[in-house]
Design brief:
The complex is a heterodimer of chains A (244) and B (478). Chain A has 244 residues and is of the alpha/beta class. Chain A has a single domain, classed as Rossmann fold. Chain A is built from 7 helices and 12 strands. The chains are: A alpha/beta (244), B alpha/beta (478).
Chain lengths: 244, 478
Amino acid sequence: MLNIKNLEAKVDNKHILNGLNLDIKPGEVHAIMGPNGSGKSTLANILSGKNGYKTKGEIKFDGQNLSELSTEERAQKGIFLAFQYPLEIPGVNTNVFLRTSLNSIRKARGEKEIDTLSFLKLVKEKSSELGIDEKFLSRQLNVGFSGGEKKKNEILQMKILQPKLAILDETDSGLDIDALRIVADGVNSYKNKDNAFLIITHYQRLLDYIKPDFIHVLSKGKIVKTGNAELGIELEKTGYTNFI
Amino acid sequence: MKTEDLKNSQEYKYGFTTDVENIRAPKGLNEDTIKFISNIKKEPNWMLEWRLKAFNRLKALKEPNWQKPKYPKINYQDLYYYSAPKSSSEKPTSLDEIDPKILETYKKLGIPLDEQKRLNGIAVDAVFDSVSVATTFKDELTKKGIIFCSISEAIQKHPDLVKKYLGSVIPLSDHYFATLNSAVFTDGSFVYIPPNTRCPMELSTYFRINASETGQFERTLIIADKGSYVSYLEGCTAPMRDENQLHAANVELVALDDAEIKYSTVQNWYPGDENGVGGIYNFVTKRGACRGKNSKISWTQVETGSAITWKYPSCILQGDNSVGEFYSIAITNNHQKADTGTKMIHLGKNTKSKIISKGISAGKADNMYRGLVEVKNKASNSRNYTQCDSLLMGNKCGAHTIPYIKNNNSTSTIEHEATTTKINEEQLYYCNQRGLDQEEAVSLIVNGFCKEVLQQLPMEFAVEAQKLVAISLEGSVG
């Protein structure tokens, strides 16, 4: 589904990624761990198409060259990024945002816009799975939300937009144990043989709830070690120093 | 003379002209022109005298010059002050008598004058250049004693009401443009709501400038008698021309005891092209008097058009406990300029006013909020709350806020809040990542920014206005 070959990235002439390789197949869960400044969030931003990076190398998503696609085209093709710091948009209801977003994606796929009733039914179902109060949905998008509410909202968006590849950028940071469990349940219930996850995290904690197929250690812009779920536990004990 | 259409420009969809034969007064501002207007409208003598009095006062007045957007000197002698489609030199008595070309024009604008195609129960008065061409739903309104007609008709049929209220809010020699309007006003709407009557539908006037080298001087007078309520909406468009055209309207509102007037404007005059050539000078005087106790006047404006918008819809809060509100969205793009805001004059006790202004500036445009809140010494326990937010798009535009605050009563309070923000790249990225393209993202963020004002509009127009907001800003973010 996703094939990254020899990816390099620069911001303001500073090298952040230095020849990163990664292959993700449908049905897989990949976790990327690594110390601060190793390039984890940069990878997430480049995959989703954020401006400001100079890149070399190749990224293919379902065989298509990603660099040819705009941010919104990538989203329409099924790449979803759960933001580390979800943005506040004053005056825009969460519901309205969700619906506009869903319809943009449907339109791009040549599908009809969703009607009001079906949309409300869908949102109700998905939000109750995440224990999100319906009142929350008529609030302005992320305005005055707690850290946990913002992260849950990202997962709600993921479940409604149904991406092929979901990238979670430190979704676990700032979550209490209950919220963490809800977020993890959200991911686990969405996971199937056709979609894939790329989970960026600092801590093993989240991986206690979401079992990854692969864990990659990222250091200085390169993957320096790849292993299975055991690797996370080892990292938790010994820290990164053995690998970098 | 430059009157050819700028057909190559695609952005302004109302930019077409209609080819109808016109009757025009000779060019120039003089007594003969005023007599011509008064005569062709078969006005009674008192009206002509009133006009001439205004014209005499005008001679002693100078155009104001304190505003931020400057404009080249207007040659008032080189303008037409009256232009009417020939077919309506006799006021049509039914829609069948209206020139089909004009009906077609309004159809193109999305305003069906044909009552068979009811526009969601909205009564429409259509003003084409200098004359009102049609008013719909008259019979239904008449049953309730509501008068909704052109001001020309009101002058003939309801002279007592017109004499009593015309010029009672905007005095004859208030300032240059208002006085000019008093001398040469051509048409506009008249509304009277009798006591304890709630107007059962939205009243709406649709203004269209069609003829070239013509100023539009409309005059609107709305009176809400004791305990009555009315919601009124005006919309405006004009063809694309490479000349600047002057629109100097006067709007007077009077609310008596316990009455409420809600006045909404969606102004979409031609803004000029992307290089700032052409466009309407929208120099308008709008003022409402909350004359009775517990009365309320609420102005809502969505200003997206015009080369220059220069207006301050105001409330004079005379009656005790009266309430004035001003909700404004002013969008300027390319070379457009706006200097707009409101005046809230607190005279009565326990009077309240609220001002919510949202200015959006893109391209090389300049957007100014200028407002006055004045509490006079007898207006005890009065309150004002003002919030002015500016949104900048790009780095070549400007936003300014100048509040004038005068409080002469120690028991009264005035609050002012202002913010200026730039449209946020991160917000756009977030929206893009959720599948919205750039235009959709801008539209969503800007509509969110304007929400408090948009939700004041009557339902039927809120959706239109949201689209207009998006269209006005198309292409403004790279």
